[in-house]
UniProtKB/TrEMBL annotation:
Pfam families: DciA
UniProt xrefs under InterPro entries: DciA-like (IPR007922)
Name this polypeptide is given: DUF721 domain-containing protein
Compositional bias segments (type: Basic residues): 28-37
Top-level taxonomic group: Bacteria
Upper taxonomic lineage: Bacteria, Bacillati, Actinomycetota, Actinomycetes, Jiangellales
Region (Disordered): 21-61, 150-175
């Protein structure tokens, strides 16, 4: 370009068009060589830049259910989510009478721990434990629950209240 100022910008425009044509010739050859070199991840194999085509792609919008399912599969949460789903539907699976007196507390290593509000209900659920395992495995998947551990009501705590005493407490009361 010349050192003179061009009020119409003709020289500048000509220079830009010439540069674009030169880049276009080189880019056109490069573009033709990239066709068909898309990797399975949708990333251009030669340059590493992503580009999308008319087919399905991981970057396409997805439903919330599909995104949550993919997240659970990636982290191995399927079993935990299904067990927590069963706990949410506890009264449907065991019936309203049992659900009123027995609540699930935790699930670890295929063992479901439940707590009964009385020793009578704890004994009743212990007798029905195999039926409960069968129902839970039907709802969640075979082998997910292998055993139901039943705990009775919690014992009284002597550490709080008006009549608590400092020190060892009422140890001699129980023989």
């Amino acid at each position: 370009m010349s050192d003179k100022w061009d009020p119409d910008g003709v020289d500048l425009a000509k220079a830009l068009v010439a540069r674009a044509k030169a880049n276009g010739r080189a880019g056109g050859a490069r573009r033709r060589s990239r066709v068909g070199r898309r990797s399975s991840t949708g990333v251009n194999a030669s340059s590493g830049t992503g580009w999308s085509g008319p087919g399905h792609d991981d970057r396409d919008p997805q439903s919330l259910a599909a995104a949550v399912e993919k997240l659970a599969n990636e982290h191995g949460w399927e079993e935990d989510l299904s067990v927590h789903g069963v706990i949410a539907r506890w009264d449907e699976l065991v019936g309203p009478d049992v659900a009123a007196h027995v609540t699930p507390e935790r699930y670890e290593d295929t063992v479901l721990t439940v707590r009964a509000d009385s020793t009578a209900w704890a004994t009743q659920v212990r007798l029905l434990a195999q039926e409960l395992v069968r129902r839970l495995n039907t709802a969640v998947g075979h082998g997910t629950v292998t055993r139901v551990e039943v705990q009775g009501p919690q014992g009284r705590s002597w550490t709080k209240g008006r009549r608590s005493v400092p020190g060892r407490g009422p140890r001699d009361t129980y023989g």
